[in-house]
Amino acid sequence: RLSDARRLGHRVLAVVRGSAVNQDGASNGLTAPNGPSQQRVIQQALASAGLSSVDVDVVEAHGTGTKLGDPIEAQALLAAYGQGRAEGRPLWLGSVKSNIGHTQAAAGVAGVIKMVMAMRHGLLPETLHVDEPSPHVDWSAGDVRLLTEPVAWPGEGRPRRAGVSSFGVSGTNAHVILEEPPAAEPKPVAEGEAPVPVGVDLLPWVVSGRDAAGLRAQAAQLAGFVRAQRAAGAVDGLWPAGVAAGLAGRAGLEQRAVVTGQDIEALLSGLDAVGAGEPAEGVITGPATPGSGVVFVFPGQGGQWAGMGRELLDSWPVFADRLAECERALDPFVDWSLREVLTGSDEKWLGRVDVVQPVLWAVMVSLAEVWRAAGVEPDAVVGHSQGEIAAAVVAGRLSVEDGARVVALRSRALLRLAGQGAMASVALDAVEVEGMLPGSVTVAAVNAPGQVVVSGPPDEVAELCVRLDERGVRARRIEVDYASHHAQVEAIEEELRAGLEGLSSHGSEVTMWSTVTGEPVGDEELDASYWYRNLREPVRFDAAVRAAQAHRHAHFIELSPHPVLALALSTVLADGSDDGYGRVLHSLRRGQPERAQLLRSLGEAWAAGLPVGWRGLLPVVEPV
Known about the structure:
Elements: H1 2-7, E1 15-23, H2 35-49, E2 58-60, H3 69-81, E3 91-94, H4 97-100, H5 107-121, E4 123-124, E5 144-146, E6 151-152, E7 161-167, E8 172-179, E9 203-209, H6 212-231, H7 239-248, E10 255-261, H8 264-276, E11 283-287, E12 293-298, H9 310-315, H10 317-330, H11 338-343, H12 353-373, E13 380-383, H13 387-394, H14 400-414, E14 422-426, H15 430-434, E15 442-448, E16 451-456, H16 458-470, E17 475-478, H17 493-499, E18 511-513, H18 528-536, H19 541-550, E19 553-558, H20 566-575, E20 583-585, H21 594-607
Parallel strand pairs: 2-3, 2-7, 3-5, 12-13, 12-19, 13-18, 19-20
Antiparallel strand pairs: 1-8, 4-6, 7-8, 9-10, 10-11, 14-16, 14-17, 15-16
């Protein structure tokens, strides 16, 4: 729909106003066209478009140039379009086959492309090799004229419209009515709000090639073009955005580069670096990774920071809309405002688990919506501890309302355990750690080889850290005062089960790899019992990622305000494949400008081979 295309930020070249298809193979045989059937398909297409024949300016004929077919088609057009036309407004008639020949299965779309380009330029191109109109056609039967020379195509107060015909050898007739798109109404922009996700202050120029040499050549050629245009005085304030829009429409080949910059000098510097095959600031390169599987990864606690999400709220509408949905879902369960927490100056919330976890959940769910709006859809999800709640919502297995209920009640229940526990990350394998654990300390999470989290009473966790430090093993206390994934959680089991009673999940085409079991989550598995186990049992992140990797998922994107699991992901993926199969990407970084960082992250995704829709992320300008 036109409305959907505009909402997604696509540049609209033309509108399909109406279309029709019929079959005349039973009339004159499979190889002979039938005029009345062609006339009927045109009338059906006009009816579909809600137009009369005089509303169409030009027809791109099937026009194969045969003595049998062309007169039959011309007579049908004279009858369907040539009657009752105003003086001086004939139906213009041409065919792209005079330029490029018969392209067989692509013949119809070639005509569509020709008419769209004619609309853009306001000019009807001539049909070549027409010495004189065919004597086998009664041209006096209607007001139809051949395009024997280029003809200006003014709008004259109404949209330009064209019909395109394409006929199959077996008797199938198709006719499409194309219309010039209406001018887009400018969206009202609130004071301080960016009208598009990525402003002209930072633009991506994307280039690619079949191989490294081709990529370098493309970058060098583009740099030469830009310098020539600048020397000719063709560059204005919006020109770099026009270049970005033009490049965004090109096919992405195997070797890719994204150059980002705030002005032409920075962009040219990046192009020069790509052309020389050298690394540079603002340049992202990479071969497109084979395989199409995308896994969205959601960490637990630890990625939060004061100010996270604030810039995206003001500049990325899809993020703001999803966050508002999450806020409405959280309202029945919390006594604070999500937006006020993210935009306010009070940072005390960073020390409250019952605020941190719901806020992280909302930010992660909203970041996933940004990636989806940019064209990157997940084939699977993995969540670490509380990250599973966001994963379940993004996968469509829990509603936003149910996800809010789980994260709010789960984090509130943890307040009862405050001051009774501690957690620490240890740079050892799980088997090595288990032989060294004092008292009631247990393994809380296995993230990757050599990356384990333990939990238990504070004094026993502190004792373990000291002993490990004496042996030269890195052990770092995590800034929490409770022991998740430990026997202490059993004290709040009844509260959790009662609060989440009646909770149910749904099926989805997006696989959710459970970090509770290491297996795919079943359609009805995410009930109250599951979410208790999610908090009580060890996090099997290592196993879940290995399972996803075994299914040839190629790209793992961490959806969080800071990459918490990047090292664990890289370690697991490298350990599980001889060729290190799997690319690790992230979204934001703590303290970094969010809009620019997210643009770089999307650039890394495109360079890795993902289908980022750049057009929807750019200012709406004419491509160069």
